Every structure is written in structure tokens, then in C-alpha cells.
Amino acid sequence: MKAAPGAQKRLLDLAGLDAALDRLAHRRRTLPEIAEIAELTTRLGRLATQIIAAETEAKDLARDQSKAESDVDAVRARADRDRKRLDSGQVSSPRDLTSLQSEIASLQRRQDDLEEVVLEIMERREAADAKTAALVAERDEVTASRDAAADRRDAGYSEIDKDADGTGRKRDALAAEIPGDLLALYTKLREQSGVGAAHLQAGRCQGCRTSLPIAELNRIRTTAPDEVVRCEECRRILVRTPESGL
């Protein structure tokens, strides 16, 4: 393939713009906020599970407390009825009187036990409610942090996209000045190795950093300036300039 030396030199500028676009794309993919948002999102998922568990525990305890309080009320009501019978003097038989007094004492013990159960459940419920509140507060804090990270990420995207847009326009304008066949070869090589053209500088390919053998340099030295030469090692287009050491 043949191409004017000036057109070949433009490939170095094109490669520089492509490298800049690659760096911008890499920067966009690796913004620190992306990893931060992912970590915070994972934390929010764990917190959501923990909040559901804590809320479920609190609801179960509220139901247990309600049942225990109902049991206390039932025992208290029965004991009150027995006391009224006892105080009314309706029970005259010593045997029935003893039995009634025994039942009242038994009901009092039962009430005391049930009230202890209610108190224990209340304490556990308060702990569950406090845990839920703490988890919800943590969730809100993490959500705010994630939102802030998303704002920073989007600002980073905007800045990078603006730079990429400007660089891309320069790249398109430059590519339009390069002959189609040379540009097609450059594009093909770029797709294969990431870099389509490299500077031959001081006898060294700046693409693969390989110093060319003397015989190869002598061959290139005798090659016509408009002949497109390639690096034998990496197969990239070698662009010759006064700094090539030929």
C-alpha cells in the first residue's frame, strides 16, 4: 500500500486521539463512585432484609403482648368476681369459703406470672423496635450516601462525555483527511491490537517497544517514502519521521 508521507504522519495524531478516547472510556468505566454505589447498594439490600426481620419480630412480639395482656385481663376479671362473691357473704359453707379463697390466691399467682410474661415481652418488643429504628436510620444514611455518590458519578460522566465529544469531533475531522484505504488498514489493525499505527523512533517501534534489527532498518531506509511499512513484530503501521533514526 502507498500513501503520502504527510497522510502517514497524520496516523500518529489519529492514534493519539484514539488513545485519548480510550483513556476517557476507561476512566468512565472505572470512576470510583461506580464501585462505591455498588457497595452501598449491596449494603442497602442487606439492610432491607434486616429491617424486614426486625419489623416481623416486633409485630410478632406485639401480638404476643396483646395475647398475654388478654390472659391477664381474663384472670383478673375472674379473680374480681370471686372476691365480690367472697365479700358479699353469699358463701357460707366453710368448705366453699376455703375453696374460694384458695382459688383467689391461685388466680393471684397466675396473674403475677402472666404480668411477668407481659413485662418480659414488652422489654423484648422495645428492643426490637429500637433495633428497627436504628436499621431504618442506617438505611436512610446509606441511601443518602448512595444518592450523593450517584450525583458525583453523573457529574463525572458529564465531564468525561464532554471531553470525549470534543476529542471525537477532532478525531472525525482528522480521519476525513486520511485516504480511505490507509484509514481502513489502520482501523483493522487498531481493532486487532488496540493501536493501528506507531512511530518509528530511533530505530524502535513505539507500539511494541521493539528495537528493529539492522537489516530491517536498512530495508526500511531504502523503501520509498510513500510506501506503507509495517513492524515485523507487532504488524502495526510504522510511521517514519526525521526522528526514526534511518
UniProtKB/TrEMBL annotation:
The lineage of its organism: Bacteria, Bacillati, Actinomycetota, Actinomycetes, Streptosporangiales. PANTHER family: PHOSPHOLIPASE C-BETA-2-RELATED, SCAVENGER RECEPTOR CLASS A MEMBER 3. InterPro entries: CT398_CC_hairpin, Oxidative_Scav/Glycosyltrans, Zf-RING_7. This is C4-type zinc ribbon domain-containing protein. Residues 62-100 are annotated as: Disordered. Residues 14-194 form the CT398-like coiled coil hairpin domain. It comes from Sinosporangium siamense. Residues 62-87 have a biased composition (Basic and acidic residues). Residues 204-238 form the C4-type zinc ribbon domain. Residues 89-100 have a biased composition (Polar residues). It comes from the Bacteria. Transmembrane segments: none annotated.
